[in-house]
Amino acid sequence: MAEEFPESSTGPDRRRELGGFIRERRSESRLSVRRLSALAGVSNPYLSQIERGLRKPSAEILQRLAKALQISAESLYERAGILERGADLAGHIRRDPVLTDDQKDQLIRLYESFDQPTEAGRTGPGEGPSALGR
User: Fold this and answer.
1) How far is CA 85 from the centre of its chain?
2) Where in the chain are the domains?
3) Cα(86)–Cα(75) distance, integer angstroms
4) Using CA of residue 47, residue 48, residue 52, residue 53, what is the dihedral sign?
5) In whole angstroms, what is the distance from residue 75 CA to residue 67 CA?
6) Residue 64: burial class (beta carbons within 10 Å; 0-12, 13-18, 19+)
7) Confidence band for 117, pLDDT divided at 50, 70 and 90
8) Distance of alpha carbon 98 from alpha carbon 28, whole angstroms
9) How confident is the model at residue 4, as a pLDDT?
10) Are 76 and 62 spatial neighbours (Cβ–Cβ below 8 Å)?
11) Which of 53, 96, 110, 113 could disulfide-link 15, Cβ–Cβ 3.0 to 4.6 Å?
12) For the purposes of burial, counting CB atoms within 10 Å of the CB of 112, is it exposed (0-12), middle (13-18) or buried (19 or more)?
């Protein structure tokens, strides 16, 4: 099995939150534990333990679960406490050697636009102030 995260990054409450989130996404996707475990390549008991917050899944397992649930791996990494939401995203984009400066600016503006309040007074997908280091 792949290496698991240190206890400091995933305490019992965080593991329970992560497990509950995975269970909710599984239910919304109308997948049984057996089906999701098969799609993700993990055992039924292991997935059940993750959902109950008893196990700390590795990044590899989180990635497989995300793919099977058709959600972003980053959303699971954030809930597991191994990735901070928006952790210096602008910095990562600016350091990308492949993108042009114009492409970098456009990506950052696009991301920031999701954090702006909508007409109905709600926030966009980022739901709150951006963590882009502004």
Assistant:
1) 9
2) 7-80, 86-134
3) 11
4) negative
5) 11
6) buried
7) low
8) 37
9) 45
10) yes
11) 53
12) middle
Q: Which two tokens stand for residue 134?
A: 């502004």
What span, in angstroms and rounded, lies between the C-alpha atoms of 134 and 119? Answer: 23
Token pair of 61, please?
């397992």
Report the Cα–Cα distance between both ends of the chain, in Å, rounded.
Answer: 40
With 0-12 / 13-18 / 19 or more C-beta atoms within 10 angstroms meaning exposed / middle / buried, residue 99 is: middle
Nearest to 73 by CA among 60, 86, 84: 60
More confident residue, 81 or 27: 27
Give the separation between CA 69 and CA 134, rounded to whole angstroms: 33
Inform me whether the pLDDT recorded for 92 exceeds 60: yes
